[in-house]
Amino acid sequence: MKCRRNDQPIHLIHSNNNPFNNSWGLIIVGSVLTGFGYNYARRVWIKVNTKKFRVLFFVEGFTDVRFVRLLAQAFDLTLVVPERQFCESGLDLRIAKAQIPVQISKIRGGRLRYQLASLLYLLRNLKNFDCVLAQELLRGALNVSIATRIWRKPMIALVATDATEYFSYRHIRGQISAFQDRIGKTAIWVLNHLNARAATLCLGVGPHLEKVVHRLTPRSGSFLYYGVDVDTYQPKPSSSRDVLRSRLKLPDDQFIVLLASRISHEKDPETALRGVALARRRGLNAVLLNLSGGFEQFLNLAQNLGLKDTSDWVMGRQAVHPLLELPDYFHASDAVVQTSLAEGFGLSTWESLCCGVPVVATATGGLTELKGFAQLIPMRDPEALAQALLWIKENPAAAKQQALSGREEAVRRYSTNIALSDLQFKVNQTIKASRR
């Protein structure tokens, strides 16, 4: 911050390396004395407010280490998580590996036990926090709605999925009956509206989900989740690909297609498998690699679809650390595919573009933001996917340039720094408004 007094520039520097504590700042007062030909500066320590707000992030299921890192940068953060999902997902190890400063409260039990135990936790501890961030608008958020009403604390709901749309694909794909579909959608509708009404503010990831939450409450807006770390995800020389493939034990002479998403009913991995199989029949020497916690399910699915010689071209590996290892897999790949039936935003596709790796994605939900920067195809269309992959193979320079234009867009609109400052501003303003 720059001020002026008697024509002297004053610079306020928030510093953790001072003789007091992090609620102090350093003022450097400087003046250029041209008549005497020298400069001087003096230091004055003054009391300033640099204390971070204490924020509790209430997680119902799984969350991403990149978002935890962003929240920890912006706030004095405490994470409340279900213990089983926290450990099974590997989030505990990823947080430790990334050395993220966060307090973690793990709550044991299945759904019912977690629902009760987490409510008791909130009722006992909420007085110690300035705000609660609720993951989505479902049963976990219901506990937050109850506790924040009792303690009169602000609640901000962070919506990264259209729960109704995601759930509907369970029935469309034959996983549940029509009766179960109606019951589930009704429960989601009730929870969405109750929690949206209770929330001080509802934020949806990106433009698509901003519209979704606005239909639930006028107290709505958007946020960018963890954004795209454009410094971590950046292009590398093509000469590095062979070295990376050797280190990662990937085929060195094949067209590698990366599916870097979990295996779930709305992700439609069948289209990815069928599309790559079609491209192979037309001469593309391709392999399809899935990185996810459900990679074994992906490998079984490939066999069950009756596709030819899947053991030769379908690969699966455990999900890797998105900050420390995933960029190398992008750089080692020729294309990234996202064949989702429903998608809130699709940040992994933007990460791929930031690495200069071409993307093929379905034109649905938040993935439509990729128009002009990726090959967009209809949902459930293996033929279109095969044609897009063949185009990338036959037009490598154009495909690369398209991806790099996507990087420019991500730097301009979706970077982690923009996501951080935007969310921090909205949370801080909500907390301050609640105290008036």
Brief overview, please?
The protein is an alpha/beta fold and 436 residues long. The protein has helices at residues 65-74, 83-88, 91-98, 111-125, 139-151, 163-172, 178-198, 206-214, 240-247, 269-281, 295-304, 310-313, 326-332, 347-354, 382-394, 396-413, 416-434, and strands at residues 2-5, 8-14, 24-33, 38-47, 54-58, 76-82, 103-107, 131-135, 155-159, 201-205, 220-223, 255-259, 286-291, 314-317, 335-338, 359-362, 375-377. Helix 5 (139-151) links the parallel strand 8 (131-135) and strand 9 (155-159).
Q: What this model shows, in words?
A:
With 436 residues, the protein is of the alpha/beta class. The protein folds into three domains: 2-47, no CATH class; 54-227 and 416-434, Rossmann fold (3-Layer(aba) Sandwich); 240-413, Glycogen Phosphorylase B (Rossmann fold), CATH 3.40.50.2000. It is 44% helix and 21% strand. The protein contains 17 helices and 17 strands. The protein has helices at residues 65-74, 83-88, 91-98, 111-125, 139-151, 163-172, 178-198, 206-214, 240-247, 269-281, 295-304, 310-313, 326-332, 347-354, 382-394, 396-413, 416-434, and strands at 2-5, 8-14, 24-33, 38-47, 54-58, 76-82, 103-107, 131-135, 155-159, 201-205, 220-223, 255-259, 286-291, 314-317, 335-338, 359-362, 375-377. A seven-stranded parallel sheet has the order 7-6-5-8-9-10-11, sandwiched between helices. β3 and β4 (38-47) form a beta hairpin. α1 packs across α17 (416-434) and α6 runs antiparallel to α7 (178-198). The protein is globular. The two termini are 26 Å apart.
